[in-house]
Structure to design on (1802 residues):
C-alpha cells in the first residue's frame, strides 16, 4: 500500500465518518422539540389541586365581577339599574341615544349601540369562567371525595363560584329578560353553535335549584379567615335565593310571542306584555324560607346603635352603615360588598355615586360628577321630615373643591348642577383623607347586599303570603332604626304606624319603605318592575312633576300632600369658619343635629349631614376657603325676607330651575318613551334592554331581539 | 461514487504537491481600475503560497513566481478578485472591476447565492453603495422609493420610528404583514437597527418561488440583509461621519387668542359658564352687575380693553414650543483586511439623534465584527458578532394635549366658588402646562442586542459543500418611566411614580445545508442541488416593577436608584414571567436546473413544523416551481444587436405564516397582577392564559403566489429593466374572529377568510451618459397593487370595527373589512356643510328653529350641545341622508354610514437620478404615493367640543358659524333672528364645533397622494493625488437635504403617516393621529478611506 493510497483511504474513511455524523444530524430530529411549555403557565390539575390554589382561580372570577360586569358601579348599574326610577334620575338632560334612551323607556329610535355592551360581555365572561371552574371542581378527585352536606374549604369555593354565576343570571334576566343560558364551559364552536335564548323562568329556576344545593356546603359570614362580606358566604347565597325567587315570582315584560301562563296587566302590540306567572306564590314561599334564614340565623346584624360621640351630634345608626364604607371598614350589616382597593383607579364612590363636587381632578375634595340624583317629588313628597335617613340620603349642597360648600343648582347639568344628589358617600367624610384628594381612587366598596334590604324583602314575602304579623315585625325593625328614639313622635312614627297597617296597605308601606331605605342603591327600578307598578309609578311621577312645575310657575311654590313646600327661590349666605364659630358651629362638616329653627345656627345645621371638611392637607399655594352655606327657606320662608337680606342672605335660584320641559312628560323630558298616553292605553313601560348588536351579528341568526327592538 | 473518488484524487494530488521543480522568475505589471486609474495597495498573491506583493502609488507591482502554472490573485477592497495564470508572461497588466458592478450579478437567495442571469423568481436587490451614498442610520428607510413592489413607510417622524415594510401589499388581516427579516441568515424582528453603512446588499424575495425556501415564514416576502464581508488586502480604515440639522416643516395651527377666547366664551355661555369665562379673561361689562353672589369681582382693572385686547395680545403656541430645530450626528469607523487564510472586518457606528420634539432623542451604538478563517483546504470558518445598544427618550404627551392648551393664561380666578371652570382646568390652568408636564416626565428605553454566529463550511469536493451554522441572539430591554409630581398634578403633596419594564429575549438558529453543483460532461446542463435542515427557537421573559408616591424630594434619578423608597405600599407591583418558546423545525431542498443557459428551472420544497399549532396541525409543506427562458440567448435574437438581455420568468409557489402568539391552541392558567382586594389588599389570582377562546384546530396560513416577469437589457445593458405581474392569494388566514360574547369570549383565532393582492411592477433604469468624466444615470420604479378581501369568517360579508371610544359616531365601526373591497376602509357619514337658517322655519316668539320637511336631522348622532335646544340648529354640522330603512329623516348609523375612504394607494414608486462629473457627484431621489386616502384624526378630534369646554381647537375652526355677536360694550349677545344670523355669518366657512360627540365624516378624509424629493445630495471627492499626500486614499465631502421638497394636497403634517394602533387586533391603516412631525434634515458629511 502506497503512502498516497493509505492517505486516500484514511481521508476517505474520515470523510465518510463525518458525512455519516452530519447525515445523522439531519435525520435525528428531536421528537419533542416542538412540544413547548412555559413555566409561567400551568394546567388546571395544578390549579385545583388544593384549596389555596383553587382559591386564586375563584378570586380571578371575583375580579371579573368587580372589573367587568358593571353590576355595581360603572356600566350596567350606572347606565340603567341605578337611574331613572320614580325616585332617582341622572343629572343631565335626557338626550337622544346612548344610555339615556333605555333609561327613558326609549324616547327615540332604538339603536342597539345604545345598550351597555360591556356589562353584557363582562357577565358572560364571568359565567364562562365560573363554568370552567365548576367543571374543574366537579372532575377533581379531592372535591369528589369531600362531603357535600357540610361546609369545607373546597365546597365553599365551589359554592362561591355557583353564587357568582347565579348573580350574573340574576342581573341578566332582570335587565334583558330571556337570555342565553349556559352551564357548561364553552371551549369550541360546537359548544355554542346551537345556543339561543332560554325563557327567563327556566334560568331562574335552575339557578335557584343550584343555589339551594350549595347553600349547606358554604360557611357562614365571618367564620374562618377571609370569609368577610368581601366574599360570598352562605348568607349571600340565601339572600340571592330570595332575590332570584322574588324576581321569578314578580312581574316582567315578556315578548308578544310569549304563550306561557300568567296574569297579564299591561300589553302593547310590539313592546310585549307585563306578566306574572301563576305559580308566583311558590316562589314567594321559597324566598320567604331563605330570607328568614339570612335574617334570623345569619351572622349579619343590623346596626341599630350609633356609638359615636357626642351623641348629640351623631345618633344616626343609618348613617353609620355608610360611614363604615367610607372608613374602609365592613359594617356588621353588610352581606356582600364588591371590594375596591384604596388608591386603585376608577372607584366610583363618591365620584359618580355620592355628593357632587366642582373640584378638579385633584382638589379639596376633587371632582364628583354625581350620577344619581333624586326627583324633588321624592325629597319633598315622600320623606317625613323626621326621617333620619333623608339627609343621609339626599344632598342639597355640593362641594366647591377648596374646602367650601355650594348650594346645589336644580338645573340639569352635573356636579353642583343637576339637582338633589345622593349623599350616602362624601369625600369629606372619609376619615383617612389620603385618597380623598384625588378623584376616583377612594377605595370605597360597592354595597351589593345588605341586611336591611333582606329584612324588607322578608317583610314583603310575609305580607304577600298574608302573614301580616311577621311582616309588620320586620318592617318595624327598619322603621325603628330610621327615627330618633328621643323624638316625641317616635312611637307614632314606628310602632303605631306599623301596627296600623295590614293587607294591601301593609304591602304598599313596605314598598315605600324600600324607597326610603335603599334610595340611590339600585333597587327601586326593578322593585317597581317585579311589583308590576313601574308604569303606574312613572305616571304618578309625571303627574306630580307637572303639578309641581305648574305650581312653581303660577304661585312661586308648590306644596306636597305631606305638607312640605318647595319654592322658586331660597336664601343663602356663605359663612366662613370664623363666623360659624361665633354661632357655636365649630366643625363645618355637620352631622345629625335636632336643632330648633329658632337657633341662630339653624341655617347652617339644617338640613343635616352636609357642610365641608376644612382641615385638608393642601400644598402651599392652594388657598382653602373653609366656608359653608347657610340656607333659609328650603321648606318654608318667612313672609318678609327683608331681615334675611339685611343679614347678608342672597336670593338664590331653587325651584325656578325646575321650570323646564326636561322635567315634564314630553318626548325630550322624563320617561319620554312612556308618556301618560301610553299608561292610559294600558301599555307596559319598555324598561327592558335589547340584546347588543354584536351578539346578534355574530350569533349566525340564532339570537334575535323581541320587544320591537331592531336586530342590527 | 466513482466521480467523487476521481475528484477527490485530483484534490489529493494538488494538496500533497507532487509537481516538479521550476525556476523562479519575476512578473511585473500595473493594476488599474475600469477608469484606468491606478489601484494603490492592491494585494498580489501567488495562489496557494505565501508569496505576495502590494501595488505601489502608481499601481505597479513586482512578484516572483515559482512556475508558469502559478496563478496570481489580484485583490483589493471594493473590487472583484481576479486570477491570472502566468504562463509565459513577464508583464501582466490587469484591470479590476468594481465590486458593485460585479455583485449585482450575484443575488442572495436564501441558503446560497445565484447568478442574476439564472434567477427564475422575482428578487429585488439594493446594493450597499446605493444605501451608503447618503446617510441614513436605518437600513429600512434607506430602501424607500428604490424597489418596485415594496412599500416602506415610517409611522411618523420620531427618532427610531417604527418602519413598516410591505412586500406586495401583504395578505394577512389581523396578523403581522411584516416580511421575514434575515440579517446574515439570522431571523430578526426588524432591520431598523442595522446602519446602512454596514450593509453589503439587501435582497428582497418577492414571490413564493424564491421565498418558498423559507416556506414557513415567507408568505409576506423575505428581506435578506447581508452585512459587509471581510476582504483580502492590507488593513483598510474608513470613516464616515455627518452632522445634521433638522428643521420642522409644518405645524398644525391652533386658534389665535382672540378666536380662542371668543369661541370659548360662546361655548361657555351655552354651558352656563359664560360669566365665569368672562371673569377669567376679563370680558364684557355686564358681569359686575350680574354676578350672582358676592363678593363681586373687581372687574374694572382686569382687562380694560375687553375682548378686543386679545387681538393683539401676546400668546403662546404650545405646539411650536414643543417642536424645535434639532441636531443629529452619525459616525462610522470600519477596519478590514486580511490575507488568504484570515480575513476580518470590524465596524463601529454611532448615532446621536435629537428629535425635533422636546425631550425625544435616540443614541445608538453598533459594533459588527466578522472573521473568516480558512482552517484547512476546503474548510472555512465564519464568525460574526453583532452588538447594538439603543437608548431612546420619548416625550409621552400627545399632540392633542399640546393643541388643546390655552394660548393665553386666564387673568382672573378660575376656581371661583360660583364657577365650574375648575372642572375644565386642564385646558387653561398653568398647573397643566403640557410643556412642563413633558419636562416632568422621563421616559427612557434602553435595549441591547448581542448576536453571534459561527458557520463551518466544508467543501468535501469541488461543487459539494456542507455548511453548518449556529447563531444565537440575546436581547435585553428596559424601559424607565417616571411621572413627576407636576405631571401628576400633585406638586408639594406627593412625589412621582416610577416604573421599570424589563424584557429579555433569547433565540437560536441551527442549520445544516448541503450544496451540490452536479457536474455534467457537457456544459449544456447545469444542476445545483441543495438540501437542508433547520431548527429555530425563540423565547422571552418580561417583568416590571412599579413604585408610586416617592418622597416629594425625589427626582427620577433617585427614584430609579432607590426604587425601594416608594411611598405607597399598596401600589407596589412586581411581576416576571416567561413566554412559551416559539419553535420551528424545518427540512427543505432546492434544485436549480439550466439547459444551455436558456431554459432555467427552480424547484423548491420545504416542510415546517411549528410549535404554535396543536400536534396534528403542526406540519405544513410548501412547494414552489419557477421557470425562465432567456430569450436573448436564442439564435433568433443573437443577431438583434440592441437586445443584450431578455428573459421571461414564470413562477408559482406556496408559502406560509405561523406568526401568532404561542399557546392559542390549548387551555392553560397563568398568574395575573393583583386585583380583587378583599381584606383591603390586592390579591393575586389566576386567569386562563388566553383571553381569546382557544382553538385546537389552528393551522398554517397559506399564501399562493403566481408571478410572470420579464427582465430586459438594451444597448449593452445601457437601458435595463424588470417587469413583473403577480397574483397572490392568502387563504386560511390566521384571523382574530369575533365570536358571540355569550360564549364568555369575544374573539377566537381561526383560520378564516381569504385575501388577494394583484399587481404589476415596473423598474427601468439607464446609463444616460457614460463618459470618463461625466456620468448620468437614472432609474424609475412604479408599482400597482390591488388588495381585496375575498372572504371573511363563515357567513360574514363584512366586519366593521372601530378606532374610537364611546364618544365617536359611528361608534366602533369607523373602519371596515368588506368582501370584495380592499382591507381597512374608512367608514363614516357624508359631510354636507352646516345648517343654515334656510333649512328651518323660524318662530320669532319662541326663537325656535324647526327643520323644514325634507331636511335630514343630523343632531341625534352629535350628542348634547348644552344650551341649545335639542334637535338641529343653524350652524350645526350637517350630514347627508343616504338611506331610509331605519329612519327616513333622522341621520343614524345604520342608514347613513358608508365607506368614505380607502387607505390603499393606486400606485407608489420612486425615481432616482445620479450624476457625477469628475470628483463631483449628485443624487436626486424622489418617491411618491398616489390615490391613497388619509384618515386625518387630528383634524377630527380638534373640531368637536366633547362636552369639555375651554380646550383650544385647530385653526380649521377659525371661521366658525356664529350664533353670538359682540355688542358695542364688548358683551356677548345671542343672535336669534334669521336675517341677523345670516348677516353675522357672511364669512363663515365651517360649523361651530360644539357637539358632544366626534362624528366621523367625509370632510376629515383627505387625499394622501404625494411626491417627495426625499433626498438631494451633492458630493465632492477630492483628487486622489492631493489626498494621498496626507495618506488618505479617498476623501469625499457631501451635503444632503433629506425630505427636501414635498408636493401634496394633504392638510395634515405629513402624508406619509400611519399612526393607527399597532397593538390592536384589526388594522387601522392610513390614520394620522398625533403624529410626530417629520423634519427637513440638512446633512454635512464626510467619507474618508485611509
Amino acid at each position: 500500500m502506497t503512502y498516497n493510497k493509505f492517505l486516500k483511504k484514511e481521508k476517505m474513511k474520515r470523510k465518510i465518518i463525518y458525512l455519516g455524523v452530519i447525515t445523522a444530524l439531519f435525520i435525528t430530529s428531536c421528537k419533542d422539540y416542538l412540544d413547548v411549555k412555559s413555566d409561567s403557565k400551568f394546567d388546571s390539575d395544578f390549579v385545583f389541586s388544593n384549596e389555596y390554589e383553587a382559591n386564586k382561580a375563584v378570586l380571578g372570577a371575583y375580579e371579573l365581577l368587580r372589573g367587568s360586569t358593571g353590576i355595581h358601579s360603572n356600566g350596567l348599574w350606572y347606565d340603567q339599574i341605578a337611574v331613572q326610577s320614580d325616585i332617582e334620575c341622572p343629572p343631565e338632560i335626557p338626550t337622544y341615544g346612548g344610555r339615556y334612551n333605555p333609561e327613558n323607556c326609549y324616547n327615540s329610535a332604538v339603536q342597539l349601540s345604545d345598550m351597555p355592551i360591556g356589562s353584557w360581555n363582562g357577565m358572560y365572561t364571568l359565567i364562562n369562567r365560573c363554568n370552567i371552574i365548576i367543571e374543574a371542581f366537579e372532575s377533581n378527585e379531592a372535591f369528589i371525595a369531600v362531603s357535600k352536606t357540610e361546609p369545607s374549604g373546597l365546597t365553599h369555593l365551589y359554592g362561591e363560584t355557583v353564587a357568582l354565576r347565579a348573580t350574573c343570571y340574576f342581573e341578566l334576566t332582570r335587565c334583558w329578560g330571556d337570555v342565553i343560558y349556559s352551564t357548561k364551559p364553552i371551549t369550541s364552536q360546537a359548544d355554542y353553535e346551537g345556543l339561543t335564548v332560554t325563557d327567563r323562568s327556566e334560568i331562574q329556576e335552575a339557578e335557584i335549584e343550584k343555589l339551594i344545593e350549595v347553600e349547606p356546603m358554604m360557611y357562614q359570614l365571618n367564620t374562618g379567615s377571609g370569609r368577610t362580606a368581601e366574599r360570598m358566604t352562605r348568607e349571600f347565597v340565601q339572600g340571592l335565593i330570595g332575590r332570584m325567587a322574588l324576581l321569578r315570582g314578580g312581574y316582567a315584560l315578556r315578548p308578544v310571542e310569549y304563550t306561557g301562563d300568567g296574569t297579564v296587566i299591561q300589553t302593547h302590540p310590539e313592546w310585549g306584555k307585563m306578566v306574572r306567572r301563576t305559580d308566583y306564590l311558590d316562589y314567594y314561599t321559597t324566598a320567604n324560607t331563605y330570607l328568614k334564614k339570612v335574617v334570623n340565623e345569619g351572622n349579619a346584624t343590623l346596626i341599630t346603635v350609633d356609638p359615636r360621640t357626642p351623641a348629640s351630634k351623631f345618633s344616626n345608626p343609618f348613617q353609620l352603615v355608610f360611614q363604615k364604607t367610607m372608613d374602609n371598614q365592613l359594617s356588621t350589616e353588610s352581606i356582600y360588598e364588591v371590594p375596591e382597593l384604596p388608591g386603585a383607579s376608577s372607584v366610583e364612590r363618591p365620584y359618580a355615586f355620592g355628593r357632587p363636587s366642582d373640584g378638579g381632578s385633584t382638589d379639596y375634595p376633587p371632582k364628583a360628577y354625581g350620577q344619581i340624583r333624586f326627583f324633588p317629588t321624592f325629597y319633598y313628597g315622600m320623606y317625613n321630615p323626621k326621617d333620619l335617613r333623608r339627609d343621609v340620603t339626599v344632598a342639597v349642597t355640593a362641594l366647591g373643591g377648596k374646602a367650601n360648600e355650594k348650594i346645589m343648582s336644580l338645573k340639569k347639568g352635573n356636579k353642583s348642577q343637576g339637582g338633589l344628589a345622593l349623599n350616602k358617600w362624601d369625600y369629606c367624610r372619609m376619615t383617612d383623607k389620603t385618597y380623598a384628594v384625588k378623584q376616583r381612587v377612594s377605595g370605597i366598596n360597592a354595597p351589593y347586599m345588605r341586611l336591611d334590604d333582606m329584612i324588607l324583602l322578608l317583610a314583603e314575602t310575609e305580607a304577600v303570603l298574608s302573614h301580616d304579623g311577621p311582616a309588620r315585625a320586620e318592617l318595624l325593625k327598619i322603621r325603628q332604626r330610621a327615627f330618633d328614639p328621643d323624638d316625641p313622635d317616635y312611637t307614632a312614627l314606628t310602632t303605631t304606624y306599623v301596627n296600623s297597617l295590614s293587607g294591601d296597605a301593609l304591602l304598599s308601606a313596605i314598598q315605600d319603605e324600600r324607597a326610603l331605605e335603599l334610595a340611590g342603591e339600585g333597587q327601586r327600578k326593578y322593585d317597581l318592575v317585579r311589583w308590576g307598578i313601574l308604569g303606574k309609578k312613572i305616571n304618578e311621577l309625571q303627574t306630580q312633576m307637572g303639578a309641581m312645575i305648574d305650581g312653581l310657575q303660577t304661585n312661586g311654590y308648590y306644596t306636597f300632600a305631606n305638607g312640605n313646600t318647595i319654592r322658586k327661590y331660597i336664601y343663602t349666605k356663605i359663612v366662613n369658619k370664623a363666623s360659624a364659630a361665633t354661632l357655636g358651629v365649630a366643625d363645618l362638616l355637620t352631622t345629625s343635629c335636632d336643632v330648633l329653627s329658632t337657633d341662630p345656627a339653624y341655617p347652617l345645621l339644617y338640613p343635616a349631614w352636609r357642610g365641608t371638611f376644612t382641615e385638608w392637607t393642601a400644598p402651599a399655594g392652594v388657598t382653602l376657603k373653609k366656608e359653608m352655606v347657610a340656607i333659609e327657606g328650603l321648606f318654608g320662608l318667612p313672609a318678609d325676607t327683608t331681615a334675611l337680606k339685611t343679614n347678608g342672605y342672597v336670593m338664590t335660584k331653587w325651584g325656578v330651575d325646575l321650570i323646564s320641559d326636561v322635567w315634564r312628560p314630553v318626548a325630550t323630558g322624563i320617561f319620554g318613551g312612556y308618556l301618560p298616553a301610553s299608561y292610559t292605553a294600558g301599555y307596559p313601560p319598555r324598561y327592558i334592554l335589547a340584546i347588543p348588536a354584536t351578539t346578534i351579528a355574530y350569533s349566525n341568526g340564532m339570537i334575535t331581539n323581541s320587544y320591537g327592538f331592531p336586530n342590527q | 461514487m466513482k466521480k467523487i473518488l476521481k475528484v477527490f484524487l485530483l484534490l489529493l494530488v494538488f494538496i500533497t504537491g507532487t509537481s516538479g521543480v521550476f525556476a523562479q522568475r519575476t512578473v511585473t505589471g500595473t493594476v488599474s481600475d475600469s477608469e484606468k486609474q491606478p489601484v494603490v495597495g492592491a494585494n498580489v498573491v501567488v495562489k496557494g503560497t505565501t508569496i505576495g506583493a502590494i501595488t505601489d502609488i502608481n499601481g505597479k507591482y513586482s512578484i516572483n513566481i515559482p512556475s508558469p502554472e502559478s496563478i496570481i490573485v489580484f485583490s483589493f477592497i471594493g473590487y472583484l478578485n481576479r486570477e491570472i495564470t502566468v504562463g509565459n508572461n513577464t508583464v501582466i497588466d490587469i484591470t479590476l472591476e468594481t465590486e458593485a458592478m460585479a455583485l449585482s450579478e450575484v443575488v442572495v437567495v436564501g441558503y446560497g447565492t445565484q447568478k442574476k442571469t439564472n434567477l427564475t423568481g422575482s428578487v429585488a436587490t439594493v446594493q450597499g453603495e446605493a444605501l451608503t451614498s447618503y446617510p441614513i442610520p436605518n437600513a429600512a428607510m434607506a430602501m424607500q422609493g428604490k424597489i418596485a413592489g415594496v412599500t416602506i413607510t415610517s409611522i411618523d417622524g420620531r427618532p427610531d420610528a417604527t418602519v413598516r415594510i410591505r412586500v406586495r401589499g401583504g395578505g394577512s388581516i389581523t396578523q403581522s404583514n411584516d416580511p421575514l427579516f434575515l440579517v446574515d441568515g439570522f431571523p430578526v424582528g426588524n432591520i431598523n437597527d442595522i446602519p446602512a453603512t454596514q450593509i453589503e446588499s439587501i435582497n428582497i424575495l418577492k414571490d413564493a418561488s424564491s421565498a418558498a425556501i423559507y416556506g414557513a415564514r415567507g408568505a409576506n416576502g423575505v428581506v435578506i440583509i447581508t452585512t459587509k464581508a471581510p476582504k483580502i488586502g492590507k488593513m483598510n480604515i474608513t470613516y464616515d461621519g455627518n452632522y445634521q440639522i433638522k428643521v420642522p416643516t409644518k405645524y398644525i395651527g391652533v386658534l389665535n387668542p382672540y378666536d380662542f377666547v371668543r369661541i370659548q366664551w360662546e361655548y361657555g355661555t351655552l354651558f352656563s359658564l359664560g360669566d365665569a369665562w368672562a371673569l377669567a379673561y376679563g370680558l364684557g361689562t355686564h358681569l359686575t352687575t350680574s354676578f350672582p353672589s358676592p363678593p363681586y369681582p373687581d372687574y374694572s382693572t382686569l382687562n380694560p380693553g375687553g375682548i378686543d385686547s386679545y387681538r393683539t395680545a401676546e400668546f403662546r403656541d404650545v405646539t411650536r414650543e414643543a417642536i424645535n430645530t434639532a441636531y443629529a450626528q452619525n459616525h462610522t469607523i470600519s477596519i478590514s483586511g486580511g490575507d488568504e487564510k484570515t480575513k476580518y472586518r470590524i465596524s463601529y457606528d454611532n448615532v446621536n439623534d435629537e428629535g425635533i420634539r422636546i425631550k425625544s432623542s435616540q443614541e445608538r451604538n453598533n459594533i459588527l465584527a466578522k472573521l473568516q478563517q480558512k482552517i484547512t483546504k476546503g474548510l472555512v470558518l465564519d464568525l460574526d458578532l453583532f452588538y447594538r445598544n439603543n437608548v431612546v427618550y420619548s416625550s409621552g404627551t400627545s399632540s392633542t394635549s399640546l393643541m388643546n392648551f390655552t394660548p393665553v393664561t386666564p387673568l382672573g380666578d378660575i376656581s371661583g366658588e360660583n364657577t365650574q371652570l375648575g372642572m375644565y382646568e386642564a385646558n387653561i390652568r398653568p398647573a397643566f402646562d403640557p410643556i412642563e408636564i413633558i419636562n416632568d416626565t422621563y421616559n427612557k428605553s434602553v435595549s441591547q442586542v448581542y448576536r453571534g454566529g459561527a458557520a463551518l463550511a466544508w467543501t468535501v469536493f469541488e461543487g459539494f459543500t456542507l455548511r453548518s451554522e449556529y447563531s444565537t441572539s440575546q436581547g435585553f430591554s428596559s424601559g424607565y418611566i417616571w411621572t413627576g409630581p407636576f405631571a401628576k398634578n400633585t406638586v408639594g403633596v406627593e412625589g412621582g411614580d416610577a416604573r421599570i419594564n424589563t424584557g429579555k429575549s433569547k433565540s437560536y438558529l441551527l442549520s445544516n445545508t448541503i450544496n451540490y453543483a452536479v457536474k455534467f460532461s457537457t456544459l449544456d446542463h447545469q444542476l445545483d442541488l441543495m438540501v437542508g435542515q433547520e431548527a429555530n427557537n425563540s423565547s422571552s421573559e418580561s417583568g416590571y416593577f412599579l413604585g408610586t408616591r416617592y418622597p416629594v424630594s425625589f427626582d427620577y434619578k433617585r427614584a430609579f436608584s432607590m426604587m425601594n423608597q416608594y411611598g405607597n405600599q399598596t401600589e407596589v407591583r412586581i411581576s416576571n414571567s416567561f413566554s412559551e418558546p416559539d419553535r420551528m423545525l424545518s427540512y427543505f431542498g432546492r434544485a436549480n436546473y439550466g439547459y444551455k443557459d436558456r431554459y432555467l428551472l427552480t424547484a423548491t420544497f420545504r416542510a415546517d413544523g411549528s410549535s404554535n399549532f396543536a400536534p396534528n396541525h403542526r406540519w405544513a409543506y410548501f412547494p414552489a416551481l419557477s421557470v425562465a427562458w432567456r430569450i436573448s440567448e436564442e439564435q433568433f435574437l443573437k443577431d438583434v444587436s440592441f437586445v443584450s438581455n431578455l428573459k421571461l420568468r414564470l413562477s408559482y409557489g406556496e408559502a406560509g405564516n405561523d406568526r401568532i402568539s404561542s399557546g392559542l391552541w390549548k387551555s392553560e392558567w397563568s398568574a395575573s397582577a393583583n386585583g380583587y382586594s378583599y381584606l383591603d389588599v390586592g390579591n393575586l389570582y389566576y386567569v386562563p392564559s388566553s383571553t381569546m377562546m382557544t382553538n385546537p384546530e389552528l393551522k398554517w396560513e397559506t399564501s399562493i403566489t403566481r408571478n410572470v416577469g420579464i427582465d430586459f437589457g438594451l444597448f449593452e445593458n445601457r437601458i435595463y429593466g424588470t417587469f413583473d405581474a403577480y397574483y397572490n392569494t392568502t387563504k386560511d388566514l390566521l384571523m382574530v374572529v369575533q365570536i358571540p360574547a355569550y360564549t364568555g369570549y369575544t374573539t377566537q383565532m381561526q383560520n378564516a377568510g381569504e385575501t388577494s393582492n394583484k399587481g404589476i411592477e415596473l423598474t427601468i433604469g439607464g446609463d444616460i451618459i457614460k463618459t470618463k468624466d461625466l456620468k448620468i444615470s437614472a432609474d424609475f420604479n412604479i408599482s400597482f397593487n390591488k388588495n381585496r378581501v375575498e372572504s371573511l369568517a363563515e357567513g360574514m360579508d363584512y366586519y366593521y370595527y372601530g378606532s374610537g371610544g364611546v364618544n365617536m359616531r359611528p361608534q366602533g365601526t369607523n373602519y371596515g373589512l368588506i368582501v370584495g373591497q380592499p382591507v381597512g376602509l374608512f367608514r363614516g357619514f357624508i359631510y354636507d356643510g352646516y345648517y343654515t337658517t334656510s333649512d328651518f322655519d323660524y318662530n320669532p316668539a319662541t326663537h325656535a328653529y324647526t327643520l323644514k320637511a325634507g331636511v335630514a336631522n343630523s343632531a341625534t348622532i352629535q350628542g348634547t350641545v348644552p344650551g341649545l335646544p335639542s334637535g338641529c340648529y343653524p350652524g350645526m354640522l350637517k350630514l347627508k341622508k343616504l338611506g331610509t330603512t331605519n329612519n327616513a329623516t333622522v341621520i343614524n348609523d345604520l342608514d347613513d354610514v358608508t365607506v368614505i375612504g380607502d387607505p390603499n394607494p393606486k400606485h407608489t414608486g420612486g425615481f432616482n437620478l445620479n450624476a457625477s462629473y469628475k470628483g463631483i457627484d449628485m443624487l436626486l431621489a424622489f418617491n411618491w404615493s398616489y390615490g391613497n386616502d388619509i384618515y386625518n384624526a387630528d383634524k377630527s378630534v380638534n373640531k368637536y367640543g366633547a362636552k369639555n369646554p375651554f380646550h383650544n381647537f385647530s385653526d380649521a375652526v377659525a371661521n366658525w358659524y356664529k350664533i353670538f355677536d359682540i355688542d358695542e360694550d364688548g358683551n356677548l349677545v345671542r343672535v336669534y333672528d334669521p336675517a341677523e344670523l345670516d348677516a353675522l355669518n357672511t364669512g363663515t366657512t365651517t360649523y361651530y364645533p360644539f357637539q358632544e360627540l366626534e362624528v366621523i365624516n367625509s370632510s376629515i378624509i383627505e387625499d394622501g397622494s404625494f411626491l417627495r424629493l426625499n433626498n438631494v445630495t451633492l458630493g465632492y471627492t477630492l483628487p486622489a493625488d492631493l489626498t494621498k499626500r496626507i495618506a488618505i486614499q479617498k476623501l469625499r465631502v457631501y451635503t444632503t437635504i433629506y425630505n427636501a421638497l414635498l408636493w401634496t394636497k394633504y392638510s395634515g403634517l405629513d402624508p406619509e403617516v400611519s399612526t393607527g394602533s399597532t397593538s390592536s387586533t384589526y388594522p387601522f391603516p392610513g390614520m394620522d393621529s398625533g403624529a410626530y412631525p417629520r423634519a427637513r434634515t440638512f446633512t454635512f458629511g464626510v467619507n474618508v478611506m485611509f
